[in-house]
Amino acid sequence: MVFQLLDENGMCQYYDLSDMPGVSAKGVFASDKYNYLDSVAIQDQLIQFKLADQAHVTFYLPQIHCVSCVWLLENLHKINAGIIHSQTHFEKKEIKIVYNPSKISLKELVQLLAFVGYEPMIHLGGNDWLKKKKVNKKQLFKIGVAGFCFSNIMMLSFPDYLSTSIGDLGSLRPFFVYLNLILSIPVLLYSASGFFVSAYTGLRQKWLNIDAPIALAIVVTFGRSVYEILTHTGGGYLDSMSGIVFFMLVGRWFQDKSYDSFSFDRDYTSFFPLGVTVLKEGKEINKPLSEIEKGEIVLVRTDEMVAADAQLLTEGALIDYSFVTGENAPIEVAKGATVFAGGIQKGRAIQVQVIKPVGQSYITELWNSPLLNNEKNIDKSFVHPWSQYFTYVLFGIAFCSGMYWWLVNPHNILPAITSVLIVACPCSLLLTVTFTYGNVLRHLGKFKMYCKNSSVLEAIEKIDTIVFDKTGTLTNHEDIHLEYEGTKLTNEQAIAIYSVTRESLHPLSQLITQYFSTQHLVVNKVDKIENHIGKGTHAICNGHSIWIGSAAFLNEHGILVENVTAGVYIGMDATFFGVFKINHVYRKGIHEMVTRLKSKGYQIHLLSGDHPTEKNNLAQLLGVEISMLFEQSPNDKLTYIQSLQNEGHRVMMVGDGLNDAGALKKCDVGIAVTDQTHLFTPASDAILEGGMIHKLDSFLEYAQKGKRIITIIFILSIVYNLVGMYFATRAQLSPMVAAILMPISSISIVALSALLSYSYSRTLRARN
């Protein structure tokens, strides 16, 4: 039935799609079991995002256990055209599905998952349950059965251990032996079933996974034991067989617990720099997203992200859901309608009331969304080719060892083969990259540098050129002072400018807002607002047409500006009024940081959209040999980055997340520097808090040390496997001891990775 399902949808040619294995599916449709999913109220609790032709939902699938499962689940769209996209999170055993509700209902979607063998574990009341620890009761039951049988088999085997010949136990010996055989059957058929299912799944797709040699060792040990018992030539190795299963299950359970203790899975719930502006008793209060409660009223400015599902309180909004859906066309939302998390407000500032608990991990998921990914940073670690063929090499060694002992001493064939199959640990090779980079990401996050994923760390190691923006990157927003020169503003004009700038997220607009905030002005309604990235803002407020931005921006729209200097120019109703001159204060430690970067061989460049009045100061700060370009538009910066890449350079861009979005996305590594906790910059590869930019060289050095840690652990893993193989091939290692050593090696890799990552991170603490 399942073959027919896959065959009809053209999914049998697996190797045309991937070089990894597929998975067989099992299950039947349960037509009545999921009828409760037809309820709109229940659907609202499960669905994270919904428009007319698109809905997003996340399920927990405890059946996910290998890359074969991932392949089938991420190709669900080939089975049902109503499924737009599906993406798995292997570590969390979760799947996010984007589907078209007009083509497939939520109930039918769940039925399809159950049919192909992945029945979701559904929890109502939102997705907060995803953060909770999950207990695998089936795994504990298997451990319990294996432990009970193993202990009793050991106890019943003691007389056999102590006897000198088969006949010493008399008539009791057959009773003990056959009782051991009966006790070993639940271990083989129930406790060890996971190893056999996993191995069989891989073999059907012509792929040897890690469970294949373990399953073979269990079968060989059990088969040899049954042969000896039935032929009355010995008591067999049922104690070793049950011990192998018991210790392997305990080891894997302990592995899972060890992994859970390390918070490295790129869930930025605890430290991601995303906050919101809450309106309370007429005041604007900045709060971390994690502290926002249901019912609170949130102010969403122009180009700011809606951080939680909320009800629109303002008369109309224009929401861009491109971060969620990939479609750029903004959608008009009426007052009282639901605005979903991830939408960007493109019009004037709006007010919304939170109606669902805030799920910060969902915002992080948007940051990592495949809709925003491109082809950069896709190189795999050097460990992957080694781990891919490990199992094949392992079977080759086991075969050669068996042939050797068959010629020399047949009695040692079984101990040698089983020990070889069990003691080798490819897990240590596979886990090296995951845990090391995971810990590096975690430590960088503690110092306010948040990388999107581990591929960013791989890319950082290859960087040879760093391009800095000036405003908001090298300069400090909190220490920038404005000085107004021009026509004196009336109270009405000041209110209009203040009302417009307070709705903008641009750092310079925020400075103008602070300039007027001390005058206790009344805020007017902004009827229309348009942001021109890299140029300025045009708005309609209280009947006035207001232009705020660069001199070129105002000139472009017929407002004549003379005596151009660095600053923000103000025009109103086709008349030039004046300019806010900017007195820059550079961030602490910039000179020392750039000096250290140059000493390490990095090429430094500066691109700025400002007038070159600061060139002399920057030359003293950064060095006269550094290439500096001024009055650069966002497109100019993008072109400059591309020209450096065409020359063979690997480029890192450090700039503002708003104006520099194109350049940040184009370069090999883009770092958005921000002092505003409510800014969200998915175009970048990392977010760096402005006050920590003086540690950039330390961050880059620490990220590069990740590969050093991987190399150290990789070498130790090879040494462990060589030593284990040496004793195993010589038949000097008990299969039971090998079963204990295998998970211990994986756990030691986790501990060593954490220790080295912590040790290297001390350099981050040392530099202030």
Protein described:
The chain is an alpha+beta fold and 768 residues long. The protein folds into 5 domains: 130 residues, Alpha-Beta Plaits, CATH 3.30.70.100; 125 residues; 104 residues, Calcium-transporting ATPase, cytoplasmic transduction domain A (Distorted Sandwich), CATH 2.70.150.10; 148 residues, Rossmann fold, CATH 3.40.50; 103 residues, Calcium-transporting ATPase, cytoplasmic domain N, CATH 3.40.1110.10. Helix content is 44%, strand content 17%. A 7-stranded mixed beta sheet has the order 14-26-25-24-15-22-23, with helices on both faces. α9 packs parallel to α25. The relative contact order is 0.09.
Tags for this model:
768 residues, alpha+beta, Alpha-Beta Plaits, seven-stranded mixed sheet, 44% helix, elongated
Topology summary:
Elements: H1 2-8, H2 40-46, E1 47-51, E2 54-60, H3 67-73, E3 83-89, E4 94-99, H4 106-115, H5 137-162, H6 172-191, H7 193-204, H8 211-230, H9 238-260, E5 275-280, E6 283-288, E7 297-300, E8 310-312, E9 317-320, H10 322-325, E10 331-333, E11 338-339, E12 344-345, E13 350-354, H11 360-367, H12 383-388, H13 390-408, H14 413-423, H15 427-446, E14 449-451, H16 454-460, E15 465-469, E16 481-486, H17 491-501, H18 507-517, E17 526-532, E18 536-541, E19 544-549, H19 551-556, E20 567-572, E21 575-583, H20 590-599, E22 603-607, H21 615-622, E23 627-629, H22 634-646, E24 651-656, H23 661-666, E25 669-674, E26 686-689, H24 696-729, H25 735-760, H26 762-766
Parallel strand pairs: 15-22, 15-24, 22-23, 24-25, 25-26
Antiparallel strand pairs: 1-2, 2-4, 3-4, 5-6, 5-7, 7-13, 8-11, 8-13, 9-10, 9-12, 14-26, 16-21, 17-18, 18-19, 19-20, 20-21
